[in-house]
Amino acid sequence: MTNLRDYTSLRVGGPAEKFIEVGTESEIIAAIEAAGDSSILIIGGGTNILVADSGFDGTVIRINSHSIKSEVDACSGATLTIGAGENWDEFVATSLERGFAGLETLSGIPGTVGAAPIQNIGAYGHEVAEFITRVRTYDRQAKAIKTFTHSDCEFEYRNSHFKAHPGRYVVLDVQFNLRLGEMTTEITYAELANKLGIVVGEKAPIAATRQAVLELRAAKGMLLNPSDRDSWSAGSFFTNPIVSKEIAAKLPEGAPQWPTADGRVKTSAAWLIEHSGVHKGDTHGGARVSTKHVLALTNAGNATAVDIAELAKSSQESVYEKFGITLEAEVNLVGLTL
């Protein structure tokens, strides 16, 4: 049997009952149909999942499809259709090299293109939803290809129609619309602006912005590095909670607060964790809170999935006891819960 620890960034996870790697659209659909009604786990880069030590009792399909189609117009910009198995950061780097602006703040996010719309990945003031025009999927329930327009995707903060219907849709390719240009739009994220040496609201070269983002992520242990166990993580383990105004009003002075369009308030999971008594470097078994950033839980040495889950649960409980807020996992949990 194939051990899933070899296919996840956390490097934990037991065996898969059946493991298939597919490289084309027809292979993806054939593998899904061959599995029938049995349990299926779709993975790409394995960078946003925590798999149980007992493994997965079903078929694991690893999508490794590579395809890039582009249409470029001097006025309307570039329309790029990218296969689900393409490495996300390699796609970002290539788009910038070709003079397509927009994705620079999303540099360094691990994973594949197919996973990007599911989670609606985002960083430094931008979300991938801003640039997606279409998502083609295979609908397991209807047994047919289904194409989603941008509005059909129902994008929200770290959420989408696909995430809300787990297991039903398998992403085949994603279409992006990017503008031509060498400069970013206005930088709205203070940390990034400071790194670039500009003030919030100014623009910056896209190449310099990508480099700044990569350096910021590396400093937080959010760039995967095979030689650095402090980066053996699934990125941010928890999403930033969105709470009512009443709950936000009870937070201590200094707690980050960003009003949302629906009248609620988003706050920082990292701030809550740090101010609830959790410290960088805290351990449980072989799992460790990153020494660089409290949102990253790492495999510091021979960690089990249970070790990592217990460490996550400890952070979750500390925040709830201190602030009455329940942190939600951003990482997909397979075969275990918090």
SSE order and pairing:
Blueprint: E1 2-3, E2 15-22, H1 25-35, E3 40-43, E4 49-51, E5 56-63, E6 68-73, E7 77-83, H2 88-97, E8 100-101, H3 116-119, E9 122-123, E10 126-127, E11 132-139, E12 144-149, H4 161-164, E13 169-180, H5 190-196, H6 206-219, E14 242-243, H7 245-249, E15 258-259, E16 265-266, H8 269-274, E17 283-284, E18 287-289, E19 297-299, H9 305-323, E20 332-334
Parallel strand pairs: 2-5, 3-5, 4-20
Antiparallel strand pairs: 1-2, 6-7, 7-13, 8-13, 9-10, 11-12, 11-13, 14-16, 15-16, 17-18, 18-19
Question: Which architecture of the largest domain would the CATH scheme give at its second level?
Answer: 2-Layer Sandwich
What integer value in Å does the Rg equal? 20 Å
Q: How many domains comprise the coordinates? A: 3
Q: Remind me, CATH topology of the largest domain?
A: Uridine Diphospho-n-acetylenolpyruvylglucosamine Reductase, domain 3
N-to-C span: 27 Å
Mean pLDDT: 95
What kind of sheet is the major sheet? 6 strands, antiparallel
**CATH C-level class of the largest domain:** Alpha Beta
